């Protein structure tokens, strides 16, 4: 089974605008909740564009295919942008989900019920429904795109048993409302694991000072792509070229995903064991050890050397295959230099927008 993902045309539209017009200088609205009321919190559109791009890069490299709703691809494919290269290679593929709209409608409506956790959100959504039924217009178009559209894409994910990478504003709504996506996702588990490992390494290196110690929270794969690309126009091309380098990891993820779909406990434990092995190896590499087996840390060639009495077989396993790939991603760069390079690609280094993008991906260690 292909390890595909359902993705939003809205995300590809924002990425296309990023490549053709640069980082946007306006703000978008994140739906937030306060008691039984909801409101819109301003968030930089440039940050939303960047998050969409980083998600897209990870999917380009580690998914077999990215499926988008065929009916709405006009929002991005009529404009010449690097995304068209991914479409021409078949990595991004339009699919006629709405040819079976009746299958999607029921799950979509139930998902909306779960997301609408406040009375104000329910009432606002109902006004959109009434407006659409009356004159094909929605009074709150942003809410419609975020909630109604997001629920529809979640329903596609559920019905067709595919993972879903939501647009950043939809992702924020799901998180803020407490809604969980319907499909388990091996890649999401892997990227969360890599993020946690990168944070651990950063804390070890830079300490925990609340004022001066911070880390850049960028996924590992976009860091690699930014390192290799010389311009914004090369980001998608570079990601596509890296697919060959990460074929083994993509195959591993496919087996991991299939084990999830089949609820194969024994296989799932095997995959988790491999991740645990990487975790233990990284702990030794950065100097985390038990009291009776202390570990020292030495700096060398940008990566840490090991001085430990740990399990030599596990150490050896982490030098090859998928485990070695994951270790390289964890130690492949903290992201600080890469983020500055990224905003420079769009001519925004040192600008207000550049600062906003850098700040949004910076967190206290």
From TrEMBL:
Domain of life from the UniProt record: Bacteria
Full protein name: Uncharacterized protein
Organism in which the protein naturally occurs: Methylophaga thiooxydans DMS010
């Amino acid at each position: 089974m292909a390890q595909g993902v359902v993705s939003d045309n809205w995300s590809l539209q924002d990425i296309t605008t990023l490549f053709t017009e640069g980082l946007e200088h306006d703000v978008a609205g994140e739906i937030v909740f306060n008691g039984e009321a909801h409101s819109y919190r301003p968030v930089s559109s440039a940050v939303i564009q960047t998050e969409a791009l980083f998600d897209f890069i990870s999917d380009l490299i580690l998914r077999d295919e990215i499926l988008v709703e065929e009916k709405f691809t006009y929002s991005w494919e009529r404009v010449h942008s690097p995304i068209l290269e991914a479409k021409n290679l078949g990595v991004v593929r339009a699919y006629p989900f709405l040819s079976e709209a009746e299958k999607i409608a029921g799950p979509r409506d139930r998902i909306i019920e779960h997301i609408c956790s406040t009375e104000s959100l329910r009432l606002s959504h109902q006004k959109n429904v009434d407006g659409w039924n009356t004159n094909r217009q929605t009074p709150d178009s942003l809410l419609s795109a975020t909630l109604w559209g997001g629920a529809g894409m979640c329903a596609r994910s559920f019905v067709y048993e595919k993972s879903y990478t939501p647009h950043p504003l939809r992702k924020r709504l799901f998180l803020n409302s407490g809604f969980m996506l319907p499909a388990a996702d091996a890649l999401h588990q892997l990227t969360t694991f890599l993020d946690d490992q990168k944070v651990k390494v950063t804390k070890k290196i830079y300490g925990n000072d609340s004022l001066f110690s911070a880390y850049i929270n960028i996924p590992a794969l976009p860091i690699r792509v930014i390192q290799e690309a010389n311009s914004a126009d090369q980001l998608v091309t570079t990601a596509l070229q890296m697919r060959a380098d990460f074929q083994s990891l993509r195959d591993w993820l496919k087996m991991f995903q299939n084990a999830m779909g089949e609820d194969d406990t024994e296989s799932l434990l095997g995959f988790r064991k491999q991740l645990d092995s990487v975790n233990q190896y990284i702990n030794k590499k950065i100097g985390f050890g038990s009291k009776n087996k202390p570990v020292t840390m030495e700096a060398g060639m940008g990566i840490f050397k090991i001085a430990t009495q740990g399990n030599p077989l596990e150490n050896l396993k982490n030098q090859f295959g998928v485990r070695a790939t994951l270790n390289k991603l964890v130690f492949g760069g903290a992201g600080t230099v890469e983020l500055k390079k990224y905003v420079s690609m769009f001519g925004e280094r040192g600008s207000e927008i550049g600062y906003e993008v850098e700040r949004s991906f910076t967190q206290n260690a």
